[in-house]
Amino acid sequence: MCSLEKRGNLFILTLTGKNVEHRLNPEVLSSIISALSRAKAKSTRGSALVTVSHGKFFCNGFDLDWVNATGSKQEAQQRFDYSLDCLTQLVQAFISLPMPTVAAVNGHAAAAGVVIPLCHDYVVMRRDRGVLYVNDLEMGLKIPELYMAFFRAKTSGWALRDLVLRGLKIKGEELLKMGIVDAVYDGEEGVTNAGMKMADDLARRKWDGEVYAEIRKGLYSEFCGMLGIASKAIGTPKL
Amino acid sequence: MCTLEKRGNLFILTLTGEDQHRFNPDLISSLLDLLSQVKAQATSGSVLITLAQGKFFSYGFDLDWAQAAGSERGAAKRLQDMADLFKPVIATLLSLPMPSIAAITGHAVAAGFTLALSHDYLIMRKDRGILWMPEVDIAVTLPDYINALFKEKIGDASVRRDLFLRGLKMKGDEAEKRGVVKAAYDGEAEVREASWHGEVYAEIRKGLYPQLSAILGLSHKVYAIARL
């Protein structure tokens, strides 16, 4: 489902999810949330988190096998809605994490799976493989207003339109031009190492984690507002 | 501390002196007072230009004054007080009934950057001066109105992230490239030098009617400030 390793100042979260596509269901989401809680409990100034994954997929979205393995359409809808609620809790956990975060995207991320890398402060991606694919439009699903607010916090203008309104499978190089990823690298090892190095460099700034998280929440002010997440003011400058 | 001069249609607001132009309650009050005067004397064709003397545009709130409170709690309260006093300055700039230009002649940091960003047009030096939001480095959060200002003025989410979460010190050419300032100029002479007559007036006037200028195919370049 996922594993958390601590290497010096770095927390390394490895996504395995359900099956080779690293799909998300409430159990998987809950285990990632737990891992983030553990990282938070052990965090200090100078901590950072990097999320990695291995293989062809980073995360291909919700576990639709689980969603549909019920007797009725109604129950399936309930399972889907529940998965979405769990995802929202995970997003909240990421954006309140008291340390800088980097996602190293080794492969495809689709649907709900796109949200995971985007909840990180920085995204590095493979140049030679992997796409981000927001396929809600193709699936005939409306993107919830809360997630539109989430996407609006990460991008705007034509890049936002291309991300959500065009059914595009967008590669790393293009995402770099769109400003959605910060850098691209060749090979799984290349992107994973780059992600770890970036996290290390950020960790070295030794930021106050609590303040970092509050400033970060400000960048998601619309999203946080919709969820009723209050922001805390911290006003004693450490010079 | 700060002065206001009127030259024809131009209101020139200057942060005076060679110091860091730190916003303490006195300077904030003066700024508010002068901006209120600008608002009161506005006519059609008025323009505001804000600039500073010396190496600094402004280094933000007066943290020395905050710490002189003697305790952590006292310092936090003084910082909050300055943030509260500063809000009407930003509100006045946002509702100023004329175009406004910030000529960033030196470092614009924290509340100093915020003051500049509250103007319609930002121009700065390419060779000197940085834009910087150091709050993440000194471990304080941002007042809600400053957060909202940056969100609405800077469209690029990765720029906002770099400014707020990375504490990026942004020089003129990067600021111009990434859309934070309108133009960056080499050297103080270029930024400061302008003729009050002819070209500058025309450019500023074009600045009064950006939509009309676009329809007429007039290119628009904002020059710098007159020699003082």
From TrEMBL, chain A:
GO terms for biological process: fatty acid beta-oxidation. Keywords: Fatty acid metabolism, Lipid metabolism. It catalyses: a (3Z)-enoyl-CoA = a 4-saturated (2E)-enoyl-CoA; a (3E)-enoyl-CoA = a 4-saturated (2E)-enoyl-CoA. Its EC number is 5.3.3.8. CDD domains: crotonase-like. InterPro entries: ClpP/crotonase-like_dom_sf, Enoyl-CoA_hydra/iso. Pathway: Lipid metabolism; fatty acid beta-oxidation. Belongs to the enoyl-CoA hydratase/isomerase family. GO terms for molecular function: delta(3)-delta(2)-enoyl-CoA isomerase activity. This is Delta(3)-Delta(2)-enoyl-CoA isomerase. GO terms for cellular component: peroxisome. The keyword Lipid metabolism applies. The keyword Calcium does not apply.
From TrEMBL, chain B:
Its EC number is 5.3.3.8. The keyword Lipid metabolism applies. It comes from the Eukaryota. It catalyses: a (3E)-enoyl-CoA = a 4-saturated (2E)-enoyl-CoA; a (3Z)-enoyl-CoA = a 4-saturated (2E)-enoyl-CoA. Keywords: Fatty acid metabolism, Lipid metabolism. InterPro entries: ClpP/crotonase-like_dom_sf, Enoyl-CoA_hydra/iso. It is an enzyme of class 5 (isomerase). GO terms for molecular function: delta(3)-delta(2)-enoyl-CoA isomerase activity. Pfam families: ECH_1. GO terms for cellular component: peroxisome. Pathway: Lipid metabolism; fatty acid beta-oxidation. GO terms for biological process: fatty acid beta-oxidation. Belongs to the enoyl-CoA hydratase/isomerase family. This is Delta(3)-Delta(2)-enoyl-CoA isomerase. It comes from Gossypium barbadense.
